[in-house]
Amino acid sequence: MHNPTLKKWIRTSTLPAPIIVSFIVILLFYFFKKRSSNMIKTKKAPEVVGAWPVIGHLNLLSVPKPAYIVLGELADQYGPAFSIQFGMHPILVVSSWELVKACFTTNDKFFSSRLVNKAIKYMFYDQKTISFAPHGPYWRELRKMITLNLLSNERLKMLKHQRISEMDACLKKLYELSTKRKDENAGVLVDMSKWFGDISFNVVTRIVAGKHIFGPKTERYKNVMEEARCLMDVMVFSDVMPYLGWLDRLRGVDSEIKRTAKELDSVLESWVDEHRQKRVSIAAGIGRIVNITEEEEIDFIDIMLSIIAKNKLPGDDPGTLIKAIVQEMYLAAWDNTTVTLTWALCLLLNNKQVLKRAQCELDAQVGKERQVEDSDINTLPYIQAIVKESMRLYPPGPIIERETTEDCDVGGFRIPAGTRLWINLWKLQRDPNVWPNDPQEFQPERFLNGHADIDMKGQHFELIPFGSGRRMCPGVSFSLQVMHLVLARIIHGFELKTPTDADIDMSTTLGMISWKATPLEVLLTPRFPSVFYM
Ligand code: HEM
């Protein structure tokens, strides 16, 4: 080559061999890294061994232990994400906050459907309710309607009088009961799980259906709802293995579900009719055809009838929708509130120093002259910490269920569409990596110190008893208002003791709601003179 410029160009543009080699090595490194990460992404979640043909892992869950405990033990073996086969259905079981975050943030839209089983189909109006409507425009409209009109802070303020007056009446009755003791120092034995059930039912009934004095219809509704609750825990073959549906008919489960659904519907129908007639008579009485005013809309049924009148209720069958929403409010509010309050009191009775400290906080902040009010709750951090700690250890629904509608990736695992998702709160909320000081122990103090900023509004994935993401519980504020106040009033107003020195039995039932398996019997003695309770 004679051209010197060209020679120089070639010399400077030719890279030395070591640089070329390094370049190739780096390229190969990135190529293999990307390939291996793609391979991880397409990995399946570990599958629990021992699936039987047809029934899958149903045998593992048919032991006399709650499912969330069995699944927690499997998580110790298989890690925080594993899959099982529930009859015909694949289930992904998740129990770490990092994976839950992945489910409820980046993948939330894929996991926004819920399962509908036979009991729900018949007793809860199929997919008409918010909880069970498929993710889509109808659900969106319904949820907006509920959060704006029934469960907004404004509405809860308007309904405060009804809520408090029901609580006052129940507490007054409890006080009267507690004075029926034979001996001044003895205390009266009260089944507090039943009492929590009654107060929750009464508050919901007042707010949803406006009923203050219960007649035979309300009693009937209560009894049938209790039957409905039991039926929801019965294993229905057609839900897991559709081809065995004939066994349900043979066992009489089908007809029992349909009978219960019919009874519930007839009470609800009569409540809605009563409300319709009331509106007609009010309108006629004062000579106007317009809607009832806000002040007269004293319960959820009234409010929904008003929305119908404005033609703003989603769907094409507003009458059925009202019944479905009423039914759903009972299902969501009654059981969850009762269960949470029951466990909170059990934990307090087994941890007397916490109970004492809570009473001291109440005496210091509220005094001894009057009962606790809503406005006191913000000044009672220890009571709030007790509720959080109880819901951490005993979430009323220990497993949150969802279903994916599309293929997605969770923590590097490929999850095919149609997989059910079970979030095991029981395991997740006791994770020693998150709660280092004895995660199994009841220590409300952890919410005053290290975990003080954690709330239960779905953004702190280590504590999500109300769920998270777009299908999170819309009743959080309402239930916390009720639970804080009821618990604070009980602790403030009464000395609470167990009938024997033994600890309270903490065993739970086997269904999807973690009820206390045995009654919670407590010796009550009023702490103050009668005028305090009136
Ligand atoms: C201690 C009380 C309560 C607890 C622990 C609780 C818990 C939950 C949980 C875990 C979910 C599922 C969330 C998810 O999938 O991420 C849920 C959904 C729901 N809850 Fe609650 N709940 C309570 C009280 C209430 C109350 C008082 C109401 C209404 C008055 C209510 C209405 C609902 C509704 C409508 C849904 C379905 C939301 C949807 O699918 O869009 N809940 N609740």
UniProtKB/TrEMBL annotation:
Keywords attached to this Swiss-Prot or TrEMBL record, sorted alphabetically, are: Heme, Iron, Membrane, Metal-binding, Monooxygenase, Oxidoreductase, Transmembrane, Transmembrane helix
Q: Which Pfam families match?
A: p450 (PF00067)
One GO term under biological process is: secondary metabolite biosynthetic process
Q: Which residues bind heme?
A: C473
The protein's name in its UniProt record: Cytochrome P450
Q: Which GO terms describe its molecular function?
A: heme binding; iron ion binding; monooxygenase activity; oxidoreductase activity, acting on paired donors, with incorporation or reduction of molecular oxygen
Q: Which organism is it from?
A: Coptis chinensis
Q: Please report which protein family the annotation says this sequence is part of.
A: Belongs to the cytochrome P450 family.
Report which superkingdom the organism of origin falls in. Answer: Eukaryota
